[in-house]
Each structure stands twice: as C-alpha cells, then as structure tokens.
C-alpha cells in the first residue's frame, strides 16, 4: 500500500511516550506526511483549535487528559477529525465508549511502522467495495452513514466472519441511535472484542 | 498339691479302715459273747431238765413199790438204777458248775437238796423201814426233796432265763453302743471329710478359682488387683507371685500408656484450642457439634448464633451430599467473611472425620485465613499488571524506533549497526512476548477474562497451529505430523485460548526436539466426556524431578537456558485448560516419546 500514490496529509500524533512519538513521527514522515506530535490530550486540543488535521493518532492512557476524555472534549467542541485510537490497553469498555464517540479505527500496541502507515492510508483513501467491504463499511460509519455500512456488510461480508458480525452489530446499534455498551456486545462476542476491532492483528 | 491330694485321700482311707475295723471288732466281740452265753445257757437248761428227768425217773422207778401198802413190805429194788440216775444228776450238776454260779444261792440249795435226796434214798437202800410211819416220813422226805429239786430247778431255770434275758439286754445295749460308736465314727468321718474338703478347697480349688477370676478381671482391664501371697509351697502358691508380678507389669504398662494417651489428648486439646484457624466439627448431617475458640470468636464477630455462615453451609451441604471432601487450594476459591467491617478471606477445607475406613462419623470444616495471601496475591497480580504495562509502553516506542531504523528508510546503516539493531530488535520482541504472557496470566488470575466457549472442531485449529510453526520446524529438519481422526467429536472451548495452549505445546516440542525428528499431534476420545489432544516429541523428555513442577509458574526445568523465556507458557496453558474444566498433563508416549496432552470436554 505504501506504493500507492500518497497524498501528503496532516497528522497529529498524541502520545505521552517520547520514543514512540518519535517513532510514529518518522514512520509517517517517510511517507511524506506532515506530522505534528504532542505529549497529551490537552496539547492536542490546543493544536486542533489552531489547525486542521486529516488524521489524529491518539493514545488511550495518558496522564492528565486521556484518550477517551480527549475524544469527549472534541465531541463537545465539535471538532471533527478521523481518529485512530492506538493503545496497548484497549478494553471493551474503552472500545465501546470510543465507538460511541465516533472513533472507528483502532491500533493495538506494539505497532510496527507498516501497521501505522496502513491504518493512516486506509483513512486517506476511498475503499474498494469489492476487495475490502469491511473497510468500506467502516468508512461509511466515519461519514455518519451507519445504514449504508450495514448494507455493505449484509451484502458483501461473509456471515461466518466474526469481524463482519461484530461490525454489523455495531452498525445496527448506531443506526438505531442506541448507546453502545459492553453488556450488549459481550454476550455475543465475549470479552475479547479487541481483535475484532483492530484491522490487522499486529505482532 | 499332689501331697495334698494324697493326704486328703489317705485321711479318707484311714477313716474308712478305722471304722471298718472297729465295726468288725465289735461285731466279733458281740457274737462271741452271745455264743458263749447262749451255749452255757443251753447247757444249763439241758442239765436242769436232765436233773428233773433223772429225779423223776428215779422216783418213778422206786417209789411206787415203796408206797404199796401191805405185807410183806415191798421189796426195794436194786439201787443200780438209783446210782446211775444219781451219777447223771451229779454230772448235770457238775455241768452247771460255773464260776459265776459259785455264789448262787439257788445252786447251793439245789446241791443241798440233791444231797438230801441222795441221803434219803441211801437210807432206804440201807434200811427200808417197815414201819409205815417211818416209811411215810421217809417217803415224804423224798417227796419233799424231789419237790425241792423240781422247784429249785425251775427256779434256777427261771433265774437262768432271767439271766439270759438280762444278758441279752446287755448284749443289745452293747450292740446299740457299738452302733453308736460306728455311727459316731461315721459322723466323725463325715466331719473329717468335710474338713478335708474344706481344706482342699481352701488350699487348692480356691486359689485356682481366684486366679481364674483375676485373670478374667485382667482380661477386662482391671490391673489394680494383686492376690494374697500364701506361705505354702504348692504349685498354686508358686503361681501367685508370678501372677502378681505380671499384673504389676501390666499395671505399669497401662499407667505408662494411660499417661501417654492423656498427654496426647491434652496436647490435642491444647493444639485445637490454640489452633489459630477456626475449626468446626459437624455431625453426619452437617450440624455443628463443636468448635474451637477461634471458631467461636469468628461466630461472635459474624453475630451468628448457630449454623455456619451461609456460603460455608452451602459448600458443606454439597460436600456431604456428594460424599466428597472439598479441599480447595486456589486463593480465588476463598470465602469472603466480614469481621468488624474488615474483609477476611478464608479458604474452607471440608473433610470427613472418620475413625474407621470409609465410615464417616462427621465432618470437619477448617477455615484457613488467607486474607494476607489474597492481599499479596492481589498485590502480585497488580504488580505484574502495572509493571507489565509500564514496561510495555516504552518498549512499544523502542520497538517502533528499531523497526524504523532497520527499515533503513530514514538512513543507511553499516553492518555493525545493523547487527546490533537486529539483536536489540529480537530481544525487544522476546521481551514483549514475555510481557504478553505475564499480562495474560495476571488477567487469568484476576478472573477478569471469562471464557467464550463454543462448540468447535479442533482439526482446523491444529492445522492452523501446525502451519504457524512449519517454518521454524523446517529449520531444524523437524517433521510435524497430524492426521485428523475421522468422527472426532466437537469440543466446547474458547478458540483463542485453546490456540494459545496448542501453540505453546507445539513450540515447546520444537524447542526440545532433536534435529531431524518427528513431532506428532494426535487426538482421541478419553472416557465418555473428554477428547484428548496430545503433542509427542522425540526430545530428551522432562527430568523426573521436574515432572511435578513444570506446570508451575516461573518454574524452569534444570538445565534449561535462560533464552527460552521465564517459564510461564505451561502454567498459562494449565490455567486455560483448567478453566475449561479440562485436564493437562505429561506422560511417556508409547515409543518413549515425551507426550504433553490436554483433555477438553465434549460439546
């Protein structure tokens, strides 16, 4: 995918771990993206006030303002950016809350540079309906069209694929405008929903 | 004893002989007396009768001639008859002469009468008077003497009869006396026999009876008796000191045993009383019978009057209903009890109290306070989780940077730099794997992760695991073999977790297999409820001393190099399999292989 024509994008990296910040920055800089990195949620909100970012890579656990709180603040201030939640500690509750706050992309640490680049790339490019129906469905969710997402999933996603089933459920909940809670997802998908969320299992 | 018996018998014999002898002598004496007296009497009677007869004969022969009146005066017959008669009379008289009769007046008078009679007749023979007056006088004289003789004879006879009567009476008295004597002797004999019997009883039978009784008492546990020592020297007397010694010995032994028992009992009580854990003794139905002070304190703190705390009661009921002891070891099986607003965790151990094999006499509930252990365990889990997270965060950064540098898109590396960074990158990967294991373990410990059980076929999972390790197996020339058995039933399992277990066993097998060997994965049902999956390798196997521990956390078999991780893989595998209500274990394969297996419940 790195070979695809990459349109330089403005990326905001939010992580309290300096080395990772550095890594993320250079991993994306080599793809010619314009990367800004900040150590916390508060600084991220500052940045969002003054500039517009195409993609935001957000850590979950941070001192002061954590990832979920940052998302909540953004929703409150009606700041819209495509967010990739990137953490080693995504649990079901956090995932559900993030989905409710309109964050549909997840990365599980540890992350290889390739995983990061691919995630960003998916956000920047229109999906291919036939090859990656799941990506397209998530794209529909990002653009606030849960019903569309549901249609794509129903028509093109294999019924025995647990990830398709999971996103179908999420889409239909969002389509009905109901709250996403672990109680609704856990009985069907167990406590291990993170592998279903994360696009590609990273190792 | 023999002497006593002989003595006893001798006494009887002597008595018998004595009595017999006396009786014989007496009888003899009596019979002799009687015979002599009788013959004397008979002689005298005969003599008296002869006397009277002779007198009468003489009279009849001579007198009628003389009485004849007329003339010539009767002729006096020849005195021959008289002489012979008289001789006979004197002989009779002589026969009656008996020393005893010397003083007999009647006898003397009879003799005088006979003499008179003789003299009268001699007068006749000498000069028979013709004068009737004289003749009459003489005849009267004869008649008178005859009468006298008759009377005296009669008198004597009577006297003799009286004598003999007296004598008979005397004999009878003597016989009675003899009877009395024999009777007395017999009585004496009886008395003596009784004495001998009593003596024998006292000296022989009684001691034996006493002994028997004492032995019986000892048999029933009364060692406190001792028999009186006797001075005699018989066998029984000899037995008594020996017996007493034995009783004393037993007494001592029992005292020692009693003391020991008492000490043990006291010790047990003391231990129970000072036992720092609450103990409840329950009857067969599970009702509390006794409790130690610690248990009483617990009940007081819980404000329970009777009956166990609810959770414990439930557990006890289950244990009693199933006749199965409940002996948990895992800290998460502890029961939470609130005492004074503080949380305490007790590990309940419920076991049968039986004195005989398999005969439940009650149940015991032992509560072990594991609050501190729980605290430490929680702390450990938290520590592992926290530390893991804290390490993982910078490590993800380091890993990212290393990846980037090794990509060489931000700049070229020289060979040394690349080698160093590659090595650091590998270490980093291993460190992350370890952290992943640690975190998973702490999640399993906290019970946060429940299983997502579903019916599944294992063949896909096993094939997946084999293809995952194909490359690393190939590097060592190892062949991975798996032939799915047809109709293997489905299992109820959490796919993600079981994949973890399979991966762990297969990667272990590869790690410990020699080059160019074979690793087999097999599956087969065991019993009615389980399916067994096993990984067999041809490695050197697990050392005997390590077999019990390899599933323990942080255990590493001796000789295992430190590169191979910190020993969590098998412990995590065990946790996962146990959570499935399955079993995991290690066995020797049929051809000496090392065989790790796990059993999962059938769907």
Short descriptors:
heterodimer; A: 203 residues; alpha/beta; Rossmann fold; 2 domains; five-stranded parallel sheet; 10 helices; 5 strands; B: 603 residues; alpha+beta; Four Helix Bundle (Hemerythrin (Met), subunit A); Beta-Lactamase; 4 domains; five-stranded antiparallel sheet; five-stranded mixed sheet; 12 helices; 13% strand; rod-shaped
What's the topology here?
The complex is a heterodimer of chains A (203) and B (603).
Chain A: E1 10-14, H1 18-29, E2 34-38, H2 41-50, E3 55-59, H3 67-76, E4 82-87, H4 92-100, E5 105-108, H5 113-124, H6 133-142, H7 146-156, H8 162-175, H9 182-189, H10 194-197
Parallel strand pairs in A: 1-2, 1-3, 3-4, 4-5
Helix pairs in contact in A: 1-5, 2-3, 6-7, 6-8, 7-8
Chain B: H1 2-67, H2 80-96, H3 105-126, H4 132-219, H5 235-274, E1 279-282, E2 288-291, H6 293-301, H7 310-322, E3 335-339, E4 342-354, E5 360-369, H8 371-407, H9 415-446, E6 454-456, H10 458-475, E7 479-482, E8 491-493, H11 495-512, E9 518-526, E10 530-537, H12 569-579, E11 583-588, E12 594-601
Parallel strand pairs in B: 7-9
Antiparallel strand pairs in B: 1-2, 1-5, 3-4, 4-5, 6-8, 9-10, 10-12, 11-12
Q: How would you describe this structure to a colleague?
A:
The complex is a heterodimer of chains A (203) and B (603). Chain A has 2 domains: 1-125, Rossmann fold, CATH 3.40.50.2300; 127-198. Chain A is built from 10 helices and 5 strands, in the order βαβαβαβαβαααααα. Chain A has helices at 18-29, 41-50, 67-76, 92-100, 113-124, 133-142, 146-156, 162-175, 182-189, 194-197, and strands spanning 10-14, 34-38, 55-59, 82-87, 105-108. The longest helix of chain A has 14 residues, at 162-175. By secondary structure, chain B is α+β, with helices and mostly antiparallel strands. Chain B has 4 domains: 2-188, Four Helix Bundle (Hemerythrin (Met), subunit A), CATH 1.20.120; 275-369, Beta-Lactamase (2-Layer Sandwich); 377-446; 454-601, 2-Layer Sandwich (Heat Shock Protein 90). Helices cover 62% and strands 13% of the residues of chain B. In chain B, strand 1 (279-282) and strand 2 (288-291) form a beta hairpin. In chain B, helix 3 packs antiparallel against helix 4 (132-219), helix 4 runs parallel beside helix 5 and helix 9 runs parallel beside helix 12.
